[in-house]
Design goal:
Elements: H1 2-19, E1 22-28, H2 34-48, E2 52-58, H3 63-75, E3 83-87, H4 91-94, H5 115-120, E4 122-123, E5 126-127, E6 130-136, E7 138-142, H6 143-148, H7 158-172, E8 180-183, H8 190-201, E9 214-215, H9 220-232, H10 246-254, E10 258-263, H11 267-271, E11 282-285, E12 298-305, H12 312-322, H13 325-332, H14 347-352, H15 355-358, H16 360-364, H17 371-374, H18 378-393, H19 400-415, E13 418-419
Parallel strand pairs: 1-2, 1-3, 8-10, 9-13
Antiparallel strand pairs: 3-12, 4-5, 6-12, 7-10, 7-11
Helix pairs in contact: 8-9, 8-18, 18-19
This protein binds alpha-D-glucopyranose (GLC).
Alpha-D-glucopyranose (GLC) binds at residues 63, 87-89, 135, 190-191, 194, 246, 264, 299-301.
Length: 422
């Protein structure tokens, strides 16, 4: 194993020596402090390997916008980007544009990562991306305010969340008219797919398309919970939630203007930073549930090497380096979930982010979006889904089940899968 690694490094170094200054460009995200963390890792690589320049390209926050940019590069078979930060839902849709990392020494790294993510990133036996960080939806709650209004702990059901929000809002709005009960990712984009999957799965409404490629979304439990969410808008959630992404929700929350927020773990470290209005006043719990069990959508990002890169061997070394133990640890300290299992037992990590320990099961049992089942059409399926959900929760459609039935037919037209109607 070590030998393979050494050989690959030597080859990389030799090519550096032969061709002097080389540049590897990494297309990365900028949600929270992601960009800063990626730039730090890039600078460390440059310091270790003089002669290599690692550029970090800032890409749009919203998943569909980022995908749009990547697709332009792929269509042009562009060598402008060597390493792409890819969403956990993309390996199936985008595999053809990436090299097989096993050909560049990935065997040395793979055993340390969660097997389910490695499996997700393996398409036809090819490892198309190395896991970088994982994600799962969690509930942020204001511990101070729940205590102030006599509640023992965070809500276990969506109904309880609603009740608590009503009570706390009635009191807090007197001094702060901008105060709301709940914010989430309600814009019409991939983030809404994640949030809606959690509501629906936690109400026994399934996962849109099941593993047997049946379209299961047109069901009463799904319709019922989406109608409940529609009732929250303008009541416990601001109208503006319908345009919020992760960062939009975090800004409202971090300014102290919400009792609850659904978000990914990255918002924890930022919420506890010195400039945060809610530092030390909040905690993180499992999301509430409806008539089923709590569900957290599986998210997360990987690093993939473009087939169109001029130097895939060097690009692969940059990807492995950025996703290695030390960098995942540095990121874990900023509450980005590692994909390397042992980091969840690291005392420093657990001290910085205690819920990485207490919610470990949430991270390992997160519910996957149907990206493998619908590949290579996942993005289209998800787009149809979040548009339909947005129509329902914004009140543009007032018959949720009928909208979900239409959605099922639209998904059938794209995928050729069978819809199941109740
Ligand atoms: C987070 C998740 C990603 C998901 C996105 C939706 O970045 O890690 O998997 O697609 O949010 O907005």
């Amino acid at each position: 194993m070590k030998k393979v690694l050494l050989t690959v490094l030597l080859v990389a170094l030799l090519s550096v020596a032969l061709f002097a200054e080389k540049t590897i460009t990494v297309a990365a995200g900028a949600v929270g402090i992601e960009l800063e963390l990626a730039r730090q890792a890039a600078a460390e690589f440059e310091a270790l390997f003089p002669g290599v320049k690692v550029n970090v390209l800032d890409t749009p926050d919203m998943v569909q916008d980022r995908l749009g940019l990547y697709l332009q590069f792929f269509e042009a078979q562009s060598d402008r980007v060597d390493v792409y930060q890819v969403d956990v839902i993309w390996p199936g849709d985008l595999a053809q544009h990436f090299v097989d990392l096993y050909e560049y020494g990935a065997n040395d790294y793979v055993p340390n990562h969660f097997p389910a993510i490695v499996e997700n990133n393996t398409v036809d036996g090819r490892l198309v991306a190395i896991p970088w960080f994982t994600d799962a939806g969690v509930l942020y709650y204001r511990q101070d305010l729940l205590e102030k209004y006599g509640f023992d702990g965070p809500p276990e059901t969506w109904d309880e969340l609603e009740e608590m929000a009503h009570v706390v809002m009635a009191g807090e709005k007197k001094n702060n008219p901008d105060f709301w009960g709940f914010v989430f990712q309600g814009n019409a984009y991939e983030g809404l797919t994640c949030d809606a999957l959690e509501w629906i799965a936690s109400n026994n409404g399934g996962t849109i398309v099941n593993r047997d490629q049946e379209i299961t979304i047109a069901n009463q439990n799904a319709a019922e919970i989406l109608e409940q969410v529609a009732g929250w808008i303008g009541d416990i959630c601001p109208e503006g939630v319908l345009a919020m992404d992760e960062e939009g929700a975090r800004k409202v929350w971090q300014a102290g203007n919400a009792l609850f927020m659904r978000n990914w773990p990255y918002a924890y470290a930022l919420g506890n930073a010195d400039d945060s209005a809610i530092k030390g006043k909040f905690d993180v719990a499992v999301l509430p549930h409806g008539k089923g069990e709590s569900a957290a959508t599986l998210g997360g990002w990987q690093l993939a090497v473009s087939k169109y890169s001029k130097d895939p061997a060097l690009a692969a070394q940059v990807a492995f380096f950025m996703a290695n133990y030390d960098h995942q640890k540095a990121r874990a300290m900023e509450s980005y979930n590692p994909t390397i299992k042992t980091l969840y037992q690291d005392p420093e990590v657990l001290e910085a982010v205690p819920f990485f320990g207490s919610l470990y099961d949430v991270f390992t049992n997160a519910v996957a979006r149907p990206s493998t089942a619908s590949a290579p059409n996942y993005n289209e399926v998800s787009t149809l889904f979040f548009k339909a959900v947005h129509q329902i929760i914004s009140g543009q459609s007032n018959d949720a089940l009928a909208t979900l039935e239409e959605l099922a037919l639209d998904i059938a037209a794209v995928t050729g899968f069978e819809p199941v109607f109740e």
